Amino acid sequence: MESWQQYLADAPPPAFPRRVNLTSAPTPDTLVRRKIKFQGKLPHKASVRAIVLTAWALVNVHYSDAEDVVFGLAMMSHGDDQPEDGENEQSIPAAPFRFCYHPDQLVDETILSFKKNDFRPPYGNQVSLESIGQLGPDMLNAAKYDNQLVIDGDSPSSTSTPLDRVMNVEVSLTRSGINVQAFFDLSSVGRDEMQRILCTFEHLVLQLAEPSNAAKPLRSLSTVSSTDLSQIVAWNKDLPPPLGAMSS
Asked: Do residues 206 and 35 make contact, with C-beta atoms less than 8 angstroms apart?
C-alpha cells in the first residue's frame, strides 16, 4: 500500500462533482441502494447515528480534499442509541452542518462529540445551503459540494426532507446495521461514481463501529474500500514481466 501511495502522490485527488447547471435546480432522479451490516457489538457509548454522521463527514473530507467541510444534515432524533419504533422521536429539519477534520483526534472522541451535540446543526435551521453565505466566507468556502445526509429517512414519497440536492443520501437504521439510499442527479454524478462513494462510506462506517479502532486517530482510518482494491488488482492483472525477467 505504501508503494501505491508514493506512486499516486502527485495524482489529482478525488472530488465530489459540482452542480453542472448553477441556474437550475438539480434533478436527483437516479437511485442506488446499499445495505450495511455491522459485525459484532458497537463501540461503548457510540450510537449508530453518530457513527453514520462521522462516516459521511469523513467522506466529504476525502472527496473534497479539504479539512473544513459543510453539507446538509437532517435526521429523526431518538432518545437512545437504538431505533425504537417511533419512541422519543424528534424531527430535526435539514440545515448546514460543519465538520472540521483534525487527523490526530481519536475516533471515540469524534463520535462522542457528535452524541453530545444531540445531532443538532449548530447554526440553526433557519439557514439553508443556498443562504449559507450569511454565516461568513469561511462557511461559504467549506460548502463546496451539493450534498446532504438524511438519517432515518423514509421513502421519497413520505420523507419530510426535500431531496433537492445533487447528492442525497438517506440512511435508515435497522437492528443489525443500516440501509442506505442515494438519490442523485445523473448529469452531475455517474452511477459508478456514486457506487464508489457509497463503498467508501460503508468502509468508514464499519471501521468506526469496530471497538479496536476507538482509541486510534482519525488519520489511521482507511478510505480505500475492498471494491477499490479489487479494481486496482483488475487494472494490474495483465502487467508485462519485469525488465529483469525479460533480459535474463
From this structure: no
pTM over 0.85: no
Range name among 3-7, 46-50, 201-205 with the lowest pLDDT average: 3-7
What is d(CA 73, CA 68) in angstroms, rounded to the nearest whole number? 16
Q: Say which amino acid occupies 206.
A: L
Assess if residue 3 is contained within a domain: no
Is 1 within the bounds of a domain? no
Distance CA 92, CA 228 (A): 34
Is residue 56 pLDDT above 80, yes or no?
yes
- Residue 146: what residue type? D
Q: Is residue 164 part of a domain?
A: yes
Give me the CATH number covering residue 74.
Answer: 3.30.559.30
Reference 184, options 159, 165, 156, 160; nearest CA is: 165
> Which cell goes with 95?
440545515
Domain, as residue range, for 65: 28-228
70-94 per-position pLDDT tens digit = 888 887 655 444 444 444 555 566 7
The position carrying cell 423514509 is 154
DSSP 44: T
109 — pLDDT class (breaks 50, 70, 90): very high
166 close to 189: Cβ distance less than 8 angstroms: yes
